[in-house]
Amino acid sequence: MKESGTTQIPITIHRFTAAVYRAFPAYIATVLRGLGYTVTIEDIPTGITDPISPALAKDQIFTMWGWVPDYPSPATFYDAEASCRAPNPNQFCDPEIDALAKTAYDLGVSDPNAALTKWTEVDRRLTDAAAFLTLGNHRRVDVVSERVGNFQQRGGFGPDISQLWVK
User: Fold this and answer.
1) What spatial distance separates the first Cα and last Cα of the chain, rounded to whole Å?
2) Contact, 109 vs 75, CB < 8 A?
């Protein structure tokens, strides 16, 4: 870490004040301090529930939100975490990467394979830029009766109830 020259950059971890959110930021701070970083933890003021609130407009490189796809496309991840065209909790914006993402969007209908190639390049550039670090993925388990049929999962949003049938 010292060779990278990044230990001189102070890190601030924002956390919500609810007890359920307190342990994880403390753990991350301990790990980062062990790597040689100077880390402070700041509570997010009561009343702020939006992680992309202007009150928190500081660079953030990781988020507790994880990946939850809205629809089956790489764009759903890009929009939520790195787009210059939409607010994102990381406050990250790279116009060059954004232009590449726009090309990927535009190819999505006319040439889906070329679009996926472009999205792969977007992913590599975001990784190389260390734009953000997602600390986890949400898992969901749905338990249904043997009487339920045609169970269909909708990405991170649970079952599509309109498609279920019950004996």
Assistant:
1) 60
2) no
